[in-house]
From TrEMBL:
InterPro entries, sorted: Class_I_gatase-like, DJ-1, DJ-1/PfpI, Prot/Nucl_acid_deglycase
Domain DJ-1/PfpI: start-end pairs: 2-165
Pfam families, A to Z: DJ-1_PfpI
GO-annotated cellular components: cytoplasm
PANTHER family assigned: PARKINSON DISEASE PROTEIN 7 HOMOLOG, PROTEIN/NUCLEIC ACID DEGLYCASE DJ-1-RELATED
Origin species: Campylobacter porcelli
Superkingdom of this protein's organism: Bacteria
Annotated protein name in UniProt: DJ-1 family glyoxalase III
Length: 181
């Protein structure tokens, strides 16, 4: 069973976080919603408050297969400014784990020095990310173990690609069909 950590900071984009959590759980992945702060109640960019499963400092990262970062502002800024997250991203990348980010969240990959040669993000936000290799033509870009996507409207496609990466084509097709996607 694939193990995934979805890191949530205040100001996260609700559609991006919940689509990933929901769709990966439908695929039988073990998904932990991890609060970047020690407060388990995390407020989204549009006023939806969720209760994370665990605080970042208490989460055991060694057994996970993937770290996912939802976008949204100011959530992505909090992710990009977190040194403790940057360290976990570098460790995960060096251990061959998958890293996924959507919307403005690839910014955290850039600041941590783990963003690949090709990526996508929310249109116009590539200037903030300030990293060569921006691809505006794909909704989801897979560059080695780094997976990025554009924004709220691409959240389901992004989540399904994560299912494909973690669980294979059969599970991907099953979940995609069940969602009428």
């Amino acid at each position: 069973m694939a193990k995934v950590a979805v890191i949530m900071a205040d100001g996260f984009e609700e559609i991006e976080a919940l689509s990933v959590v929901d769709i990966l759980r439908r695929a039988d992945a073990e998904v932990s919603m991890v609060a970047l702060s020690n407060n388990l109640e995390v407020s989204g960019a549009h006023g939806v408050t969720l209760k994370a499963n665990v605080a970042f400092d208490e989460f055991e990262f060694k057994d996970i297969d993937m770290i996912v970062l939802p976008g949204g502002l100011p959530g992505a800024k909090h992710l990009a400014q977190s040194q403790k997250l940057a360290q976990k991203l570098r460790e995960a990348k060096s251990n061959g784990k998958r890293l996924a980010a959507i919307c403005a969240a690839p910014w955290a990959f850039s600041t941590a020095g783990v963003l690949g040669d090709e990526y996508t993000c929310y249109p116009g936000f590539e200037a903030t990310i300030n990293h060569a290799g921006y691809n505006p033509d794909k909704n989801v870009v897979i560059n080695g173990n780094i997976i990025t996507s554009r924004g709220p409207a691409t959240a389901m496609e992004f989540a399904l690609e994560l299912v494909k990466e973690l669980c294979g084509n059969q599970k991907y097709n099953e979940i995609k069909s069940g969602l009428l996607f």
